[in-house]
Amino acid sequence: MSSIVRVCTYASEAASQKELIGALAQLADVRVERQCTTLDEVRNCVAQRTADLLVFNLDPDIDESLKGVQQLVRSAPDLGLIGVSASTAPSVIIAAMRAGCAQFVCAPIEISDLESAISRVRASRAGSRPEESRRIYVMGASGGVGATTIACNLAIEIAQITGRTSALIDLNLEYGDIAAAFDCKPKYSLADVCKHGAELDPEVLEAAMSELPCNVAVLARPDQITDGYNVTPEGVAELLKVLGSTYAHVVVDVPRYYGFLSTVALPDTYRTLVVTQLSVASVRNAGRILDALRQLSIPNESVEVVVNRWKAEHDRISNDDIERQFNRRVFALIPNDYRRVSSALDFGHPIQAKAPNSPARLAIHEMAKTLVSDRATGGVESTPKGLFRKLLSRKAATSK
Predict the structure, then answer these.
(1) By Cβ atoms counted within 10 A, which residue in 38, 96, 235, 262 is the most buried?
(2) CA pseudo-torsion sign 240, 191, 144, 364
(3) What's the CA gap between 199 and 216, in Å, rounded?
(4) DSSP state, 189?
(5) pLDDT for residue 373
(6) Which of 125, 160, 180 is the last residue of a domain?
(7) How many C-beta atoms surround the C-beta of residue 366 within 10 A?
(8) What sign does the CA torsion over 229, 233, 237, 240 have?
(9) What phi and psi values does residue 159 have, to the nearest 5 degrees?
(10) Using an 8 Å Cβ cutoff, are 43 and 11 in contact?
């Protein structure tokens, strides 16, 4: 933890909440980030990693509260949790510890007891490595390949699998479509938090993010194209840093052009997904992007190729052709399901909501499962040859 402990409090009764806040206010190194009165508010706070420590009043319904504690600890095992109760019965204290409370404080609260409990939690966690945030970039090889659709639905699937809010950022400052994909009009945009002189911390970022019912927090591009010119490299770098301390998974829709955004954003990526279709032009562009990523010193093992609209009628290139051309396995194949995916986009709905059994949605779900695990691998060694090489050569020759 840092020198300042960020605390979230929970109490279902106003008097108990007031007691918690009053006690914490007397501790110099504590900052109360959120005051929750319902378990849903606490889950939201924990999912967004708003706080380092949760002070949880277990009264009046201790049994129900302990069930809530167990759920919270399962979803966020790295969260320090202090239980507070007026009951001093040994059975209650033992049950609280078994449920997941790192410390127990009796009410009415003695300031010294609370301070000691917080110190013990900090000491037990000193040197422990917090969960690493995974930043996933999605980049289209050419216009219309469906990169934004994949980015949006990937963020949804990750949130569903992990049970935690995922962040979705639109770095296409001029023509980004993330807000349109969800049919939402965020109050704030990337330009508001990344402009020159803007101060960004977890509290400011939380207010700027638009959290959707699908458990995805969105930061969209500005409405006016000219507002995008106010976004600074320093602002983007700070944004990504704060996002990493707040969300376990951050999905970024990256534009295809290379400028300061790509230079600032792409380093420290967990995975960069280059989305292509099985057409000569799209695959050739994917190859150029892979070369550019190497020039930016992006580790080869963190770059993956995703084929979208697989098995479309116009495909003249096979999955095997791509693997031979790029000397790597295709990370994911997203089947062509144009009608249902287009319908979802037109209505501003996730594929999951509009067509949960869509082959495209199921493939994105499987890709999300791989990305939240440690099984993501890539790279095969072979020599480009066969149909794909001939097609490329023919295309290049006719373009001269």
Answers:
(1) 96
(2) positive
(3) 23
(4) B
(5) 83
(6) 125
(7) 14
(8) positive
(9) -60, -40
(10) no
**Residue where a domain terminates, one of 98, 125, 152:** 125
Beta bridge partners of 275: 140, 306
363's tokens = 């493939």
**What is the tens place of the pLDDT at every residue in 258-302?**
555 556 666 678 999 999 998 888 989 999 988 888 877 788 888
Per DSSP, 78 falls in state T
Tell me if 225 sits within 8 A of 174, measured CB to CB: yes
Quote the number of domains for the chain: 2
CA terminus-to-terminus distance, the chain: 60
Q: Are residues 43 and 149 in the same domain?
A: no
DSSP at 209: S
Of 256, 266, 252, which is closest to residue 171 (Cα–Cα)?
A: 252
Angle at 157 between CA 155 and CA 160, to 5 degrees: 110
- In sequence order, which ranges of 253-318 are alpha helices (DSSP H)? 260-265, 280-295
Q: Which residues pair with 218 in a beta bridge?
A: 168, 210
Between CA 305 and CA 376 the distance in angstroms is 12
Residues 229 and 364 in one domain: yes
Question: What CATH number corresponds to the domain at position 353?
Answer: 3.40.50.300
Same domain (yes/no): 97, 164: no
Same domain for 111 and 163? Answer: no
C-alpha angle 286-287-292 in degrees, rounded to nearest 5? 95
Supply 190's token pair: 């990337």
In 3-state terms the chain splits into helix, strand, coil percentages (rounded to 5) of 45, 20, 35
Two structure tokens written together for 119: 């110190």
Residue whose token pair is 């380093």: 267
d(CA 145, CA 308): 7
- One domain for residues 49 and 187: no
Amino acid making up residue 98: R
Three-class SS of residue 376?
coil
Task: Tally helices (H) and strands (E) across the chain.
Answer: 17, 13
Same domain membership, residue 262 and residue 205: yes
Neighbours of 56 (CB within 10 A): 27
User: Which element (helix H / strand E) includes 152?
Assistant: helix 147-162
Evaluate if pTM is beyond 0.90. no
User: 82 and 21 in one domain?
Assistant: yes
- Can you give the residue range of the structural domain that contains 358? 134-399
pLDDT tens, residue by residue, 90-114: 788 888 888 888 889 999 999 988 9
